[in-house]
């Protein structure tokens, strides 16, 4: 019997189980995930399709708080910002949507789209003073969602309203962070890279003002050479593995830890590993950095 013929019974067996599952009332998602895993192992689903289907099923278990950009990392339009300052923020951050804060900088009162600012620039003959005077005309009303909002429902709302950003509020109505439709989609399909994301081959990218963006795949030895640190590479080859060990769990985006004189914030991560880290000098040193991490408290992140 040929290899192709010998493999047919197992494939038919899996397809029969799949047919039986969907012909009956489905009560257990774990059963579906198990079948998808078997299909992946039997090479009936490639790696990308498997993870997308897995992500689509598991996304309903996640909430806005799990993937939001924390308030401390939000790039916002502050009271009194002139158009020139706003343009600088757009260029530096490469974002397309920006929360607009109220007069005392405690609440979000609107959302500014970069494309709306371009339209205003043309209508104002590219005069900064005229643009600043008319900025309120192009600020859109914000959409607020609770931290507990499930991602599958949030994605549905994004699609129905054609809105791409929501402000996440805590139980007291305060701003906890923000979430975008791209954030939700990345939980399903994985990271969506665009032309503004740093290239993976640039392991350490200087952002200015003492800030760095570091690939989690950077060798610990290379990290030590660049930052003049002495982190041990006996157990972990990459800085991502080292930082994950210090956390004691796989951290999510926005989680922070201080190691030696350096403060690490998870910039990008998926359900398998850290991808990018934001690194700044903390000014604090621990005598045994790999054993005594400083986890940022909620107050430090606000």
From TrEMBL:
GO terms for molecular function: flavin adenine dinucleotide binding. Residues 68-129, 138-195 form the CBS domain. Keywords: CBS domain, Cobalt, Magnesium, Repeat, Transport. GO terms for cellular component: plasma membrane. Plays a role in the transport of magnesium and cobalt ions. Belongs to the UPF0053 family. This is Magnesium and cobalt efflux protein CorC. It comes from Natronospirillum operosum.
